[in-house]
Each structure stands twice: as C-alpha cells, then as structure tokens.
Amino acid sequence: MNFLSFCALGVTLREGRNAGAAAEDGFVTKVRHSLVTLAAALCLACDKGTPDAIIGPPPPTPHLSVEVRYVGPITDAQKAVVVAAVGRWTRALAKNFGEFRFDRPADECFRGQPALNENHHNPLVFVSVGVIDGPERSLAGTQVCAISSRDTLPVLTHIRLDIADLEAMESRGILLGVITHELGHALGFNPSTYGPKKLTGGGSEDPYFNGPTARAKFAKHGAWYTGITVPLENQSSAGPNDPHWRFFVFGDEVMASGIAAGFTSPLSVITLGLFQDLGYVVDFSVADPYEVRPLFSDNLVIPEFSLMNDLVRLAPPAVLTPVVRR
Fold first, then answer.
1. Looking at residue 82, which CATH number applies to its domain?
2. d(CA 232, CA 250)
3. Between 188 and which of 53, 193, 214, 257 could a Cys-Cys bridge form, CB atoms 3.0 to 4.6 Å apart?
4. CA-CA distance, 143 to 163, in Å (whole number)?
5. Contact 109/312 with Cβ under 8 angstroms?
6. Which 8-state DSSP code applies to residue 172?
7. pLDDT tens track for 53-68
8. In a domain, 54, yes or no
C-alpha cells in the first residue's frame, strides 16, 4: 500500500512494499516524479509574499459595538429590554469609528452625567429613567452629546425614559419599540448627522430624506407613494429637521413618529438604507419584513403616543476628532 504525505514545501512518498511488489517499481517512480514536480510548482508561491498572506475576500467587517451605561435606578427587566433593542441595531450595522478621547466634566451634557476621562472605540450611550413631562406625553428623549468630526455620526448620547410613562410602556408592550426608536436617533437618525451631509430637503409641508440607498429601498417597498424621495414627518413644523419617517406613510415602522399597543415596530430595509447613506456598513438580511401600506380607513391606526418631540436639542453637540496613533 502507498501512503502519500504532503508537506508545506514538498511531497514525501512512503512505500509499504511486500515481496510481490517489484513489478510496480516503474509505476512508483513515475508517481514520485509527478508528485514532486506538482509540489514544486505549487510551492513556487510559498516563496513569495508574507507567510500569512490572505487569499480570497477579506473577512467581514465586525458588527457594531455599542456600550450602554445606566445612570440611576433601572430594573433588570428594563435592562434586558435595552439589551434586546441594542441587539437589533448591532446585528444590522457595522462601523469602525476610530478611537476617541472622552474628557468631559460631570453634568456637561445632561444632569447626572458622570465625568469622563477615557479613550473609547465604540458609541457610548447613557440610559436613565427620570422625569420628563408627566404621563402620556413624551415617552422618552434622546440627546446627542458629541459627534465625530470625521463623519458627524454620534459617539456620545443620552436616552432618558420618562418615569411617569415607564409602567404604561411595559404594560402595553411598547418599551422595546420605544428604546429601539431612541437608539436610532442615538446612532445617527437625527439632523446633526444627516444635515451636514445634505441628505434632506423640502419645507415644513413636505420634508424628505434624499439618500440614494433609502430612496431605492423605499421605491421598492412603497411603490404606491408618488414621491421620489422618502418623506419625513410634516406635522411638527420642523421641516427636514424632524428625525422621523412620516407616520401617515410609514405607520408602525420603528422610526415613524408615533407608537401604539400592538405595534411591532419593524426595523425596515428603508431605515437601514438611511444608515448606509450615513456611512455605516449594513446587513440588510436582518431587517424585519415590512411593506409601506397606504393608511386608508380600513387600516388607519391612530398612535396612542407621539414620539415627535423626543430629540432633545439643548445645545449643539460637541465635535470630537478621532485620536491619531503614531
């Protein structure tokens, strides 16, 4: 029996012979010659390039990491909802933010913010529970504290859940949708990110998002709509500075401006298209099933709660430049 053993730089042929195998000598010699010749040809490449050179496509970009820190009391059950909401975004998005130096005094962005003195590679999101404006008004608010000078994407944000509405959000089953929505603002669905990129237009009556990826996804999944751009909310008088899809077009989509019990708040390819237009690498395969349906009398749903004024803009966000390593 012949045993062939290939090694990195050649071929070794080991022979197990018996008394009647002499007639095979010519055949074995030919096999040995052919294998050594083949090995030499294959190993010509071994002397070129680095030993660990990668052949084929590069490895996939790692998924986005988001660090969440809690400020003040929040239950384990509520933390679990936050983790689930973060997971919806991190499975879909990837981005190398670079390294940032956070050197911020306490209470600079929001009351209760701890002092920061650290380097950071990922978006940092503070989550707190506190008073906003009483029951059944603003369920939550998101404040962008700092953005990157490289691409205007948020790197430091704060999400506050209104303590007056927290029990209602949990009992109605909408807490996951609300937190997923607020994280959308914290990751870039806000005018401090898309405004400088010139991705919006229109006035207060018909504001729109004009990014090419979001437009293409919207055209495919909302063909009934006559516009060629993606409509932003037009009920707030904020025009293109309103960071929501228009509710009476998008219904229960996660970044629409309203929510109600029974809403599943799907994360659609249209919203993920917006994030690709903002500069993220996007995995569209993890989007939730969603089609834009016109809201006529048979399927018109009035939202229980408005999310329209949930972006807190007390001051322009700080602009941080990534650290350059030498």
1. 3.90.132.10
2. 10
3. 193
4. 17
5. no
6. T
7. 344 444 455 579 999 9
8. no
